[in-house]
Structures are given as structure tokens and as C-alpha cells.
Amino acid sequence: MTQEDRPQLYLIAPPDADASAFPDTLARVLDAVPVACLRLSLASRDEGVWTQVGDAVRAVAHARDVPVVLGEHWQLAERLGLDGVHLQEDLRHIRAARKALGPDAIVGAGAGASRHAGLTAGEAGADYVAFSPCAPSPFGDGAIAEADLFAWWSEMIELPVVAEGGLTPDLVAALAPVSDFFAIGPEIWTADDPAQALKSLAAPVLE
């Protein structure tokens, strides 16, 4: 696999990220490992929290030329000066997000393990489709984004595909030939050293 063929890393911030400690942690991770994009999707329903964290994260990421997309809330993305949105809950909003954010914004879509949802998102104008989870999970409906889904997509569809959820070094190695990005977040943030955890998890595409 050549350097040009290697999948890139797509970082997902933790849902409890704050504006005080997380920016320093994020900076260490971004300085340690090449990252193509960062997704911010917070658990908080407080707009003030989103604004504070969004501002802090944007400063760190943009200083390193890493674009930031916001989970779901495209109305906030433009206000916070972010680069786009990742839609998961309602893919019908893809066209609305594109119209609101403009042609240069990143509009990504999570499609679970559904080929149909992925195709629908692509037809609606998504810039990439993320399939998840890649391993059994106690959450969701139990469906798994299997390797053959990524293999089919990479052969038949030009739209970039993202592997997300339950990733391990073995899965990264197995899916590397048929994925464009690996979305990594929950797998590393509880580690004592998230940067080292990311290096270890993504080793098959970093070596």
C-alpha cells in the first residue's frame, strides 16, 4: 500500500469535551499523528457550552490546518466558523445543510450499516459516508458494518467511505484496503495518553 493509498484518520472529540482541558489534549494528539478532519459532537444541550468548546477546538485544529465538522447542528457550524457538519440522525437534512452552508462546506453522513442509507446520503449530496459500527456493540440495533460492505462500496462507489466504531488494530489493518478514512474517538480518550493510544490503534496505516 503506497502512502497515497493509505486511509486517513478522522478524529471524533469526546462528547464531554470541555473548553479548559480538552484543547491541550487535542493539541498533543494532532501534533503526534496526522489527522484529516475533526468531528465535534457534544452531549450538552447548552448552546453556550457548544460555543465555548467550538471556539477552543477550532483554534487548535485550524492552527494545524485540520477542518472541524459539527455533529448534527449545522445552524451552529456556520456561526462558530467551522467547516461543515456530520449528520447522523436524519439524513433528510443533507440538502438543507448543503444549502445553508454552501458548496464549499463539508457535509458528511453516518449511514449505520445500511448500504441503502449510504447510497441515499450520496445522492443527497454528502461528501462522505461513514459506516458503523465495525464490531459488535451493545448500542444500536446490533447491525455491524462488515468488511464486505466496505469492499463493495470501494469497488462500486466513488464517494469516500469512513469506517467508524469499535476499531482495533486488526480491524484497521483488515479494512485499510477498502476504506478512505478511519473515524476514531471513543477508542482513545479514556487512555492515559490519547496520542499514544491513537498511534497504536492506527499503526497499520501509519507505518
Describe the model.
By secondary structure, the chain is α/β, with parallel strands linked by helices. The protein contains nine helices and eight strands. The protein has an eight-stranded parallel β-barrel with strand order 1-2-3-4-5-6-7-8, surrounded by four helices. β7 (161-164), α7 and β8 (181-184) form a beta-alpha-beta unit. α1 (22-32) runs parallel beside α8 (194-201). The protein is globular. The mean pLDDT is 93.
Rg (CA only):
16 Å
Give the strand content.
15-25%
Largest sheet: 8 strands, parallel, barrel
Major sheet: order of its strands?
Answer: 1-2-3-4-5-6-7-8
Poorly predicted regions are none
Gap from first CA to last CA: 10 Å
Round the mean pLDDT to the nearest integer and report it.
93
Quaternary class:
single chain
Summarize the helices and strands and which ones pair or pack:
Elements: E1 8-12, H1 22-32, E2 37-40, H2 47-62, E3 68-71, H3 74-79, E4 84-87, H4 94-101, E5 106-110, H5 115-124, E6 128-131, H6 147-156, E7 161-164, H7 169-175, E8 181-184, H8 194-201, H9 203-206
Parallel strand pairs: 1-2, 1-8, 2-3, 3-4, 4-5, 5-6, 6-7, 7-8
Helix pairs in contact: 1-2, 1-8
